[in-house]
Amino acid sequence: MEQVMRPAGVVEELLAEEAVEPSVAGVSWAAVVAGAIASCALTLVLLSLGAGLGLSVVSPWSNSGVSATTFEIGTGLYFIVMAMISSAVGGYLAGRLRNRWMGVQSSEVLFRDTAHGFLAWALASVLGAILLASPATSLLSSATSGAVQAAASSQTTGPMDGYVDTLLRPNNPTAENTANVADTRRELARLLTADFRNGAEPSATDRSYIAKVVAARTGLSQADADKRVSDVITQIKADLDKARKAAEHLAIWLTLSLFIGAFSATLAATEGGGLRDGTWGKRALRR
């Protein structure tokens, strides 16, 4: 029998050509969907737990409920813990439940497990944005909407109310034409809401009118009424600015939690896949 001698490199090329790619798909979508659903369900449970712990009871006003700073730090850390737990569970299930790939190199298996964890996290994030939008929005918006909603809740009907108030504004408010306290409060609430809605502040005309109403209602001198109006406007601006900054920082916390969630999901998927194949802890030894 004649033997043909070939260089080592040629033998390796022949073996590579003879290797057959497994027919099993590289992505087990059933496992990915299962992991994503589990992650979404666990996220909802943890959101409910966070609401029960008081994370959604927030007001930007001083000495009213949880402070904006406490909400920012506490909820930010809770988001990170929640993302780590839910994403890790979803990624682990996606790696553990996927099909076994026979004849695939360990490095490729590691990549596929990582991809399964990432896909489970991505699908859970999309589903969460759709299914959990209402509770998540309620939890987040409570940090910043207190000052604006307090005034907006007093607004009656349409967007023209502020213009009508301007048309019917008396030149010299007196105690008689401001006797209806409820109407006066609603008018001032609409006025302040319109002025502060886009980050502006009351104009000189609005300040003058508000000061006249305050003087007529309280009996203060015009100078004292002007000072009171200025102090209140300054306090409103400070509270709104504090709430706005808390919302910005909270958005950073949320983004950070998403990145940590993606990392947790991919890491847990590699562990789940390794336990599925019985290779966890031995990957470094395999070639």
Fraction of helical residues: 55-70%
Mean pLDDT: 74
Per DSSP E runs of 2 or more residues, the count of β-strands stands at: 0
| Structural class by helix and strand composition | mainly alpha
Whole-Å distance between the termini?
34 Å
Q: What spatial form do the alpha-carbon principal axes imply?
A: rod-shaped
The arrangement of helices and strands along the chain is HHHHHHHHHH
Note the beta-strand portion.
Answer: under 5%
Radius of gyration: 31 Å
Describe it.
The protein is 70% helix and 0% strand. The two termini are 34 Å apart. The chain has 287 residues and is mostly helical. The protein has 2 domains: 27-144 and 251-285, no CATH class; 148-240, no CATH class. The protein has helices spanning 8-18, 29-52, 68-96, 106-131, 133-141, 146-152, 161-167, 181-196, 204-218, 222-277. It is built from 10 helices and no strands.
In short:
The protein is mainly alpha-helical.
List the helices and strands and how they pair.
Elements (H helix, E strand, L loop, with lengths): L7 H11 L10 H24 L15 H29 L9 H26 L1 H9 L4 H7 L8 H7 L13 H16 L7 H15 L3 H56 L10
Helix pairs in contact: 2-3, 2-4, 3-4, 3-10, 4-10, 9-10
